[in-house]
Design brief:
This protein has 396 residues and is mainly α. Helices cover 77% and strands 2% of the residues. The chain contains 14 helices and two strands. Helix 2 crosses helix 3 and helix 8 packs antiparallel against helix 12. The termini are far apart.
Amino acid sequence: MTEIVKLPFFIRLAAILVCLMGLFVIVYFGQDIIFPLMLSLLFAIILRPVVAFLNKKLRFPYFIAVVFAITLFVLIFLGIFYFISLQVTNMASDWDKIKDNLYYHYEHLQNLIKDNFNLSRKEQNEILDSAKIDSIKTGKQIVGSTLSSFTDVVLNLTLIPIYTFLFLLYQNLFINFLIKLYKPEHHQKLREILVQIKVAVQSYVVGLLFEMVAVSVLTTLGLYLIGVQYFILLGIITGILNMIPYIGILFAGALTIVVSLTGSTDLSVIIGVIIVNIIVQFIDNNVLVPLFVNSKVQINALVSIVGIIIGNVLGGITGMFLAIPIIAIFKVIFDRIDALEPWGYVLGDDLPKTFEWHKIRIPSYNYDNSTSTINFSNEIPKSEESENSTTNDSTV
């Protein structure tokens, strides 16, 4: 019988930190391999119900069901890309108008800088000319990195469907591999972890897709009502960027303002765009997220934001998109392993979400109803007060 050795806390903490640093280094240097695999695994989990439906309900052979699901998946993405390219083509056809509007806003910005910072147009042009010279020097490097990045994107777009197909085809192989790693008494817990991961990822990503469609429609309608020219393209881009929590909508709002100014000389359109984004985000946070993004794993906002930033550092946009599902997977695993349960708890969110006030539900962030069993109040309980007073009286 093996004897379990309990190490001091500082040794265990040092081991955890070393493992985390090693994990970050591996992911950072191996991102070109790891992130396409993780993205493919995510798509495979999403497509698994489709394959099961084709295989069990429609009696497709399993291989044919997988091929059909992957083909449908690729066609949907190609359709979205084709629709966006049509909108971009329509925008490019108005290039002369866009150039005139940009020149108008450029002159307005120059006058604004001249009035507020006492920089003449000549001085501003000299600064821009020096910046142009510096940009020309680095132009070849930028073109080279752009071509390299484009090559990587094309390669990943080719590999991801292949990886997804292979994950679906060999899913039983991977499950049996995990079963062989653990003793039979742990198989039930392993099954619970795998099922919960599947449910959490599917509910989050499918809900995110419904949210993307709803945000795209609402933003498109709002931009149409205020008279923004390229409202369809901007609405779709806003919905896609909104899939990156917290940060995506900020980029979408900034991009919408910039593109709106290229289609109009009226600066008041900025106010309209901001109002539309605020209204859409209010509907998104209070209606769409509770209705569609009903994840089975609750993650607190602090961990989500930090995870998205780390994902951006490690893998760019792909890392930001994968951050929340990966954290959800870690939380599922941590919650079901006794030694790691505190880490799963700190990733979660135990705050009560709402309280009712005159039949109106209002967000509530009050720890009085949380699951903490520690009393942090400064008041002394009455029983202790009476005991202290009795002691003091007896000593007098």
